[in-house]
Write a structure and sequence with these properties.
Elements: E1 12-15, H1 21-26, H2 32-46, E2 52-58, H3 66-75, E3 80-85, H4 104-108, H5 110-113, H6 116-131
Parallel strand pairs: 1-2, 2-3
């Protein structure tokens, strides 16, 4: 952290694919408490949670749990969330999830409805779910 202190404008991209245990399942060797503690330390040291962008890879294991993660991200006052679709391995693609459910509450989160890319990703998944 002493090396980071040399910079006046700092930001972090943090990969989080699920809330609590789901993140630990998807991202092997991840420990939710350690992740949150580290975010808190960095936020306190470098000016708040606005320094973070959360990157989430949407796949079959988390497609139905994005509301919980998005709600947590907003509760931390993190304003940047990027949703990326997993392509490979194809067996983890969201289309291999049964009963895909994208709740309206997810689409109403400010992290989604103010971000055209996130909104399109989720609306496309929701439309796919309607056709299957």
């Amino acid at each position: 952290m002493e090396q980071l202190d040399r910079f006046s404008n700092i930001s972090f991209i943090v990969s989080i694919d699920g809330f609590e245990q789901l993140n630990e399942q998807i991202r092997k060797n991840s420990v939710w408490k350690t992740l949150v503690d580290n975010l808190d330390i960095l936020a306190k040291r470098y000016g708040g949670y606005g320094i973070f962008m959360i990157n989430t890879v949407v796949q079959r294991n988390n497609v139905n749990n994005l509301l919980e993660l998005g709600t947590w991200i907003e509760s931390k006052n993190i304003t940047k969330w990027r949703l990326n679709l997993l392509d490979n391995p194809s067996e983890l693609h969201y289309s291999n999830c049964e009963n895909i459910y994208i709740p309206d509450e997810l689409l109403e989160l400010s992290l989604v409805n103010t971000n055209i890319e996130n909104s399109l990703v989720l609306k496309n998944i929701k439309n796919y779910a309607k056709t299957t």
